[in-house]
Every structure is written in structure tokens, then in C-alpha cells.
Amino acid sequence: MTYLIINRDHEVRKEELLQQLNRHLELEIETTQDLIKYPDIHVIETTEKTKAMGIDQVKKLQLEMLFKPLNLSKQAGVIAEAQNLTKEAQNALLKTLEEQPENTIYLLTVNNEKNLLPTIVSRCVKLYVKKTQNTDGKVEKNYDKTDKPEFLEKDIAAQFEFMKKLTEAEKEVGGKILDFMIQLGDYYRAEWKSSVNSNPQEARVFSRKIEIIETAQKRLQANTNRLFTLENLVLQLSKTR
Predict the structure, then answer these.
(1) Considering the entire predicted model, what is its pTM?
(2) Are 42 and 76 in contact (CB under 8 A)?
(3) Which domains does the chain have, with CATH numbers?
(4) Which of 67, 62, 31, 61 is nearest to 44 (CA)?
(5) Among candidates 182, 137, 165, which has minimal Cα distance to 11?
(6) What does the pLDDT look like over 48-76, one tens digit per residue?
(7) How far apart are CA 46 and CA 95, in angstroms?
């Protein structure tokens, strides 16, 4: 799975990157400087000398990701500030994102999705991060408190009816459908965060629900049948306990 973390603020993107790595790899990383401690996390980024990331860096990442994870259940490829990838580097990345093994994830951070090729964006689950910096310059963390969506209080028949009305109201994926998917994801991320230390087993359930939502989001972006995808989402969420 490939995730695209989108926000205009660099610190917000960095904070969300750590959040996603911790969830997917079941770690407790506090700073990006700690990433070097984990051989299963492979990072490419710009340096003071290079303002752009070229095809050689992408090929190096692809080579590192060929091997099985050493210590973790998955390995992660991180492309920090992906807007700095050259077009050639992005094109070289396409097949990798499309055919990645089950035990790998890719996380890209970007200031604006329009700064990437549409073919790259279409292969990602887009995470529109709502975090902002407060007046002290500190990142105000998202997911700390999110009300339970009314949808989750309905029985399964009512949920199916809700999905039917949702798809009938929109001709394309976007607007209300996208808002609905973001709302569901935010709720379960908040639940995951509140339980990750106190109840790891429950946290794993919430993590799985997040993955189900993100998979559905990716399928919707790939123009699969919307109603079928959303109805399958209902079934998968109901089975995951």
C-alpha cells in the first residue's frame, strides 16, 4: 500500500509521517532522527547539496525494498518531500508502487498533490492531514478527539441504505463521499491512538479498520464500482472485531 501525506506545512507532514509509521510498523518513534535506527525503514530525501531527488535515489530505494524485512513484519519506503522528485524519478517509481509486495508500504509526503504526476497520485491512498501549528509553532495533533460518526451507530441494513443514497447523490468520487471516508478514517485513527498504549489488542483492531477504509478509498480512486466498494466496506468493518 502507498500513502500520500498531504499538507502545506512541513512540520505537520513530518508529524503525520511518524504517526503512520508507528501504526503500520507497531513502533514508538518520536523523531525523524530515530528512523536511522530501523533497518526496515528506508528513506530518501533532499539534502543541503541537492534540491531535487533524482532517478538514482529512487533506484537505490527500489533495491533496498527488494529484500525481506529484517526485524519487523513490514518494511517501509519513505519519500520525504516528494514534490522534489524529478519527473524521471517519478516515472521510475510508478511500477514499484503498482506491484509492491504485501510486506511493504510506501509513505510519501508532499506539500500539494498537484506537484506530483497524476499517475503517482492515482496509485496512493491520499491522507489530507488536518493538523496545524499553533501560535507557539508547535503542531497541534489531529485525532486527539473525534466524535463517533452517526453512520457507525446504524445497523447494517441502515448502513447499506446510507451507502446507496451516498452514491446516488454524486456522479463522481469526491465531495460527500471523500468527506465521509475522511471522517471514518479520522475517527478510527483517534481510537487507535487512544488505545495503542493501554490496550494493544484493541489498537490492532482499529488499525485493521483503518486499513480497510484506506483500501476502499484507493479502490474508489481507481474508479471501481462505487456502491459495491462501499457495501464491501460495510461488511469488512462489521466483521473486524
Answers:
(1) 0.71
(2) yes
(3) 2-140 (3.40.50.300), 150-239 (no CATH)
(4) 61
(5) 137
(6) 676 889 999 999 999 999 888 998 989 99
(7) 22
